[in-house]
Amino acid sequence: MTVTATPPSSSWPEDVLRLNAVCPYYTMFPLDFPLRQLTAHPKATRVLDPFCGRGTTLYAARLAGLPAVGIDINPVAVAIAQAKLIQVTPSAVVRLARQILDGGMRDTVPEGEFWQWCYERETLRELVTLRETLLEMTTPTAAMLRAVLLGILHGPRNKNLPSYLSNQMPRTYASKPAYAVKFWKKHDMEPVRVPALEVIERRAKRLLDAAPLARGGRVYLGDSVETLNGLQQRFDLVVTSPPYYGMRTYVADQWLRSWFLGGPSDVPYGTQGQIARQPNQEAFIQALGEVWAATARRCRQGARLAIRFGALPSARTNPEQMLLASVKESKAGWVVKDVHQAGTPPKRTRQAQQFGKAGSAVDEIDIVAELIGLPR
Ligand SMILES: C[S@@+](CC[C@H](N)C(=O)[O-])C[C@H]1O[C@@H](n2cnc3c(N)ncnc32)[C@H](O)[C@@H]1O
To answer: 290: domain CATH number?
Structure first.
C-alpha cells in the first residue's frame, strides 16, 4: 500500500504545476482542496472524481503518485482532464502539430461574420485542419495537443508574442457570437495572423517541460451514475465538486471549445445530461444522492468522500442543507465526519461568475464522509 504525504501547492515548483492550467474551465476548484484530502488520507491508493471538470483532482493524484479516474458529461471537461493523466514531451506535441499542418490544409472553414472576425483566414484554416485531423485521433500525444489547442483557442490579444489564436476574447468562456462581433466592430479590431504552430510550440514547452511523472488512470465521458455502474475498480478516496443547483450552462459557455471537439459552429443551448437540469431542489438532491450511492458501490469500506459545494446567489438555496440531504438520501453507508466553511471562492473560480454576479458569491462548504455501512 502506498503511503504518501502530499505537500500543498505552494511547496511545488511553479513549473511542475503548469500542466494543471492547460485550459481554464468554469468552476474549477483550487488544487489545494484535493491535495489536502490526499494529505489527510495518506493510505489512499486510487482516487475518483465523478464530476471531474478540468481534472484538478486527477492532477493532485498525479502529484501524490496515485492513479485516478475522472468522469464528466461535458466533452470539453473530459478533453482537458485527459491531459492531466498524460505523459508526453513538448517536442512530440509540436511534431504532431507540424505533421498535421504539413499534411495538407483544409479549405472548408465555418462561414459567417463571427468566424470572419474571430480568426484571421489563414489561422482559421490551420485551426480547422488541426480540428478535423484530431477528431480522428486517439493517441496520448493527440489528446495532449487537443488540450493545448483548447487552451489557446481564445483569449486576450497580447501586445508582444501572441498567446491565443483568436481576436480579443475572454479566455475562461467564449463570448456569444453577436456580442463578440459587435465588440470587435465597435473597437475596430480586425483579427491578426497568428501562426498556430508557433503558439503551440511556446505553450507546449511551458506546460510540459517540468510536468510530473504520470501515474495512470482514465477519464470517462458520460453520466456519473451510468459510468460508475460500469466500472470495475475500487477507490478509497473520492474528491469532487458537483455543479451548484441551477448551474447547467457548461456547454453553452464553452461553445467555441465544444466546436473544436466536433460540436456545431454555433452556440448549443442544450443542457445535455447536466445533473443540475432537474426541475426542483428535491429532484436535484435525489439525483446527487444517486451519485453518492453509485460512488459507494465502487468504494472500499473506510473510503473517504470529500465534497465541495456552494450555491448560486440567485438560487436562494442552503448548500450545506442540500448536500447533507443528498448524502443522507443516498442511504449508501456514508457517514459525515466533518462539515466546514470553505470560504468564498476566488472570483475567477466561482460558478456564479458566469451569471455576472460574482460579487455576491455565496460561501462554499466542504464535507467529508466515511464509508462505514455496507453499500447497497
Ligand atoms: C463544479 S464542476 C467540477 C469542476 C472540477 N472540480 C474542476 O476542478 O475542474 C462540475 C462538473 O460536473 C459535470 N457534470 C454535470 N452533470 C454531470 C453528470 N450527470 N455526470 C457527470 N458529470 C456531470 C459538469 O459538466 C461539470 O464539469
So the answer is: 3.40.50.150
Decide: 243 in ligand 1 pocket, CB within 6 A.
Answer: yes
Q: Rounded to the nearest whole angstrom, what is the distance from the C-alpha of residue 24 to the centroid of ligand 1?
A: 14
Is residue 220 located within the same domain as residue 196? no
**4: in domain:** no
CA dist 29 → 59, 344, 354 (Å) = 12, 12, 15
* Substitution site in 29, 59, 72 for ligand 1 pocket (most atoms within 8 Å of beta carbon): 72
Check if 224 has its Cβ closer than 6 Å to any atom of ligand 1: yes
For residue range 156-206, list pLDDT tens digits in order.
Answer: 998 889 999 999 999 999 999 999 999 999 999 999 999 999 999 999 999
**Whether 267 contacts 62, CB under 8 Å:** no
Verify whether ligand 1 is closer than 6 Å to residue 26 (CB atom). no
One domain for residues 135 and 180: yes
Q: Residue 360: which domain range?
A: 9-75+215-371
What order do you get walking across the sheet with 68-72 strand by strand? 217-221, 68-72, 47-49, 235-240, 299-309, 364-371, 334-343
301-352 pLDDT per residue, tens: 999 999 999 888 776 788 999 999 999 999 999 999 999 998 765 555 544 4
